[in-house]
Design brief:
Layout (H helix, E strand, L loop, with lengths): L28 H12 L4 H15 L1 E2 H4 L8 H7 L1 E2 L1 H14 L4 E9 L5 E11 L2 E5 L30 E2 L9 H8 L4 H7 L15
Parallel strand pairs: 1-2
Antiparallel strand pairs: 3-4, 3-6, 4-5
Helix pairs in contact: 1-5, 2-5, 4-5
Length: 210
């Protein structure tokens, strides 16, 4: 878990992070309905963001934690089946917040996969109080305690540059193509998790240690 200020993210215009597409389905009726329900329980954009983050983190199982083989990619699929990898859960959170007018981006880390390799991990960044703030909705478990914070980050994992890990500063309006390709090509999410997840972002140079 991190407990430090966010690394420098791209200085992106938040108005470019409100749209909908075939994966970030911010205009899907079920997504909009849940977004409105969450907004009705809260008073401010910050409270809405926290409510949506907590809902996705806690109400949608992480595929590997749940040992669930179903493949989900789009926001509506994740909402319907209540399961997904970090990428898919981030797609739903992004769609929920955009449906209620909160600029939300996708962003990524490169992390040690525990077997001498590296894997791309998906997060979101919300634009509130005039700045971007990263959040990790992958779901908590023993050793993982990600929390909502607009101050010091409280992500699932911090990066260790000595192991080749890094934070990517790029904010994505749409999911990274390598993520979409991996999920669309999968028939079994557990098989994908064990050996088919993206190990780099091709459009972003990886450090020489990788």
């Amino acid at each position: 878990m991190t407990d430090a200020s966010s690394p420098q993210l791209d200085d992106a215009d938040p108005t470019g992070f409100l749209g909908s597409d075939d994966i970030i389905q911010a205009d899907h009726p079920a997504v909009v309905e849940l977004g409105r329900e969450l907004r009705g329980r809260t008073g401010s954009p910050e409270e809405l963001a926290e409510a949506a983050f907590t809902w996705v983190r806690d109400e949608v199982d992480h595929s590997f934690d749940a040992q669930d083989r179903r493949v989900t990619l789009t926001a509506s699929e994740v909402l319907e089946h209540r399961v997904g990898l970090c990428y898919a859960k981030s797609h739903l959170l992004t769609a929920l917040l955009r449906s209620q007018g909160v600029p939300t981006a996708l962003c990524y880390q490169l992390l040690d996969d525990g077997s001498d390799g590296l894997v791309v991990h998906g997060l979101v960044a919300v634009h509130l109080r005039g700045a971007w703030h990263r959040l990790d909705p992958r779901g908590n478990k023993e050793g993982v305690d990600a929390q909502f914070s607009l101050g010091d980050e409280r992500l699932a994992w911090s990066v260790d540059p000595e192991r080749g890990e890094r934070d990517f500063p790029t904010l994505y309006a749409a999911p990274a193509p390598c993520v979409v390709e991996a999920l669309r090509g999968a028939e079994d999410m557990l098989d994908l998790y064990e050996g088919g997840l993206p190990s780099s972002l091709p459009d972003v140079p990886t450090p020489s240690a990788v």
